[in-house]
Write a structure and sequence with these properties.
The protein is an alpha+beta fold and about 350 residues long. The protein has 4 domains: about 60 residues, MutS, DNA mismatch repair protein, domain I (3-Layer(aba) Sandwich); about 90 residues, Reverse transcriptase/Diguanylate cyclase domain (Alpha-Beta Plaits); about 60 residues, 5' to 3' exonuclease, C-terminal subdomain (DNA polymerase, domain 1, Orthogonal Bundle); about 110 residues, DNA polymerase, Y-family, little finger domain (Dna Ligase, domain 1, 2-Layer Sandwich), CATH 3.30.1490.100. The chain is built from 13 helices and 11 strands. The strands form 4 sheets. It has a 4-stranded antiparallel sheet, with helices on one face. Helix 6 links the parallel strand 6 and strand 7. The longest helix has 21 residues.
């Protein structure tokens, strides 16, 4: 989806259309941007950017609080559209998914035409735009989906894969972040064709296991199947406060609210997990996390909060204030929880 959270806000609130918009963060410079509209991106505002920096780049930036329940509803509607064309869908997040259209449910006969039909349905039914990448494997399709945003459709056929990758700037490769890109450039790797000159062994010596991925990546080789039942590695929620918290009682109250919200997110995904992680960011921007793994699976706020309190009591804050708190769950039970007789699976 194109600037998903921001696009939903602009769709639902006409006064925001055409404006530089940030979902997440705040006008007092606290927090970070979750998603920026394309109007804001023209000024250099990006996801995960501190609000303070975003305001420096775009003083007229409008901030709005995320409405995750709404985004989840829209995401479900998008996946309903997907299922008209294929049942092999691997969600990556609320706004992105892989689709395997080998089995063509409507007999359209062309992956490109299927992508066009899906884009059209999203536009007409949900009044949003999506960008699609069509190719022979997940890696190439992912790159293609980002190539002509917004509202793009890029097809990279078998004969075009290698030439396309050879001419692609290294920072455009999926999986190559800023730090890795700088390291590669220090090795003289600026384009795909430069990366292709290195052997698999040489890349593994420089980048460890990722080196093997990079070696096959630049050759367009990716045999990973689309996995319909892909489970998120973690589900979490966090909040940055307008005023730093100094009283432990206030922090515990906020953690209780976070646990209640986390319970709703777990319910939306029919998920339960064993590992609870507490995250704190202090007023000096230092960060700490503490985790605990239970002997059984948990999916309710009360038990999550009990575990979080145990973790919190072990943290010595001294006189430091807290600007952000977060709680997340991981180590999921991945079967269909609706079939379970008990809300928890205790392990013996």
């Amino acid at each position: 989806m194109d600037a998903f959270y921001a696009s939903v806000e602009q769709r639902d609130f006409p006064e925001l259309r055409g404006k530089a918009l940030a979902v997440g963060g705040s006008p007092d410079g606290r927090g970070v941007v979750a998603t920026a509209s394309y109007e804001a991106r023209k000024f250099g505002v990006r996801s995960a950017m501190p609000s303070r920096q975003a305001l420096q780049l775009c003083p007229q930036l409008i901030f709005c609080r995320p409405r995750f329940e709404v985004y989840k509803e829209v995401s479900d509607a998008i996946r309903t559209i997907f299922r008209r064309y294929t049942d092999v869908i691997e969600p990556l997040s609320l706004d992105e998914a892989y689709l395997d259209v080998t089995t063509d449910k409507l007999g359209i006969g062309s992956a490109i035409d299927i992508a066009k039909a899906i884009k059209c349905a999203i536009r007409e039914e949900l009044h949003l735009t999506a960008s699609a990448g069509v190719s022979t494997n997940k890696f190439i399709a992912k790159i293609a989906s980002d190539f002509q945003k917004p509202d793009g459709l890029t097809f990279i056929g078998p004969s075009k894969i290698v030439p396309f990758l050879e001419q692609l700037p290294i920072e455009k490769f999926f999986g190559v972040g800023k730090v890795t890109a700088q390291k590669m450039k220090g090795m003289g790797i600026h384009m795909g064709r430069d990366l292709k000159q290195f052997s698999e062994q040489a890349l593994m010596m420089k980048f460890g296991k990722s080196g093997k991925f990079f070696y096959h990546m630049v050759r367009g080789e990716d045999n990973r199947p689309v996995k319909p039942n892909r489970m998120s590695k973690s589900i979490g929620i966090e909040d940055t406060f307008e005023t730093d918290l100094s009283e432990r009682s206030d922090m515990l109250d906020e953690l209780k609210l976070l646990c209640d919200k986390l319970e709703r997110r777990l319910a939306l995904k029919s998920a339960q997990a064993r590992t609870i992680t507490l995250k704190l960011k202090l007023s000096d921007f230092s960060q700490m996390t503490r985790s605990k793994t239970a002997t059984y699976y948990i999916n309710n706020a009360e038990e999550v909060y009990t575990a979080v309190c145990e973790l919190f009591e072990k943290i010595e804050l001294a006189e430091k204030k807290v600007r952000l708190l977060g709680v997340s769950m991981s180590n999921f039970y991945e079967n269909d929880l609706a079939k379970l007789d008990s809300p928890q699976l205790r392990l013996f």
